Amino acid sequence: MSNRQFSIVPVAQTFVVTPEMIQPGQFWSAFGNTETEVSALWIVRYMQRQGKGWMPFTYAALDAFYRETRAASLTAQGRQTAAEQLGHYTFNELIDTRHERGGTMTQQGYVIASGDGTLRVTREFVMRCYLSSPADLPEGLPETFPVPAQKSKEGDSATEGA
After folding, report:
1. What pLDDT, in 10s, does the model give residues 63-104?
2. In this prediction, what percent of the chain has a pLDDT beyond 70?
3. How open is the CA angle 75-94-161, to the nearest 5 degrees?
């Protein structure tokens, strides 16, 4: 984790965290357990590979990226058998779906499903990843950032308003 200290102050500017601003390493204590942090890391790596910001994605595309990348890594390490027996990507508590009374399903957590079958990361997901493992900031950015916007009633998707 970076030793850099950040202070958050209310300002009129908007600070947007892109996937490229997150160091693809380990998210120490970002989500409360290692498995969830590894799952988050795969989403960030996938978004970085896509190069389109925090766009909606499908499980199938994320899983294909995970399996292709992980298999190549295992094969390069001489672990062909492990590569052939590789399982599928799991969210490990990044998605929390609850069934409420009356059969209504609500979603909480760091990744939410949209009605069109796509998934989106939340602002909370982005900020936890960024604060745990920020990449070097581009020149000219201040060391202070605005307070994130309040959650909207429709949800907390990181792509809202984009």
Report:
1. 999 999 988 888 888 887 877 788 899 998 898 665 455 555
2. 67
3. 110
Among 110, 108, 90, CA closest to 99 = 108
Q: How far apart are the first and last CA of the chain?
A: 29
Q: What pTM does this model have?
A: 0.71
| pLDDT (tens digit per residue) in 37-53 | 999 999 999 999 999 99
Contacts 24+ apart (CB under 8 A), 97-105: none
CA distances from 83 to 43, 77, 79, 94 (A): 20, 10, 6, 25
Q: What backbone torsions phi and psi does residue 98 show, to the nearest 5 degrees? A: -125, 145
For residues 118 and 15, the model is more confident at 118
Query: What backbone torsions phi and psi does residue 97 show, to the nearest 5 degrees?
Result: -100, 130
DSSP string, the chain: ------EE---SS-----GGGB-SS--TTSSSSHHHHHHHHHHHHHHHHHTSSS--B-HHHHHHHHHHHHHHHHHHTT-HHHHHT------TTSEEEEEPGGG-EEEEESEEE-TTS-EEEBHHHHHHHHHHSBPPPPTT--SEEPPPPPPBTTB-BTTTT-
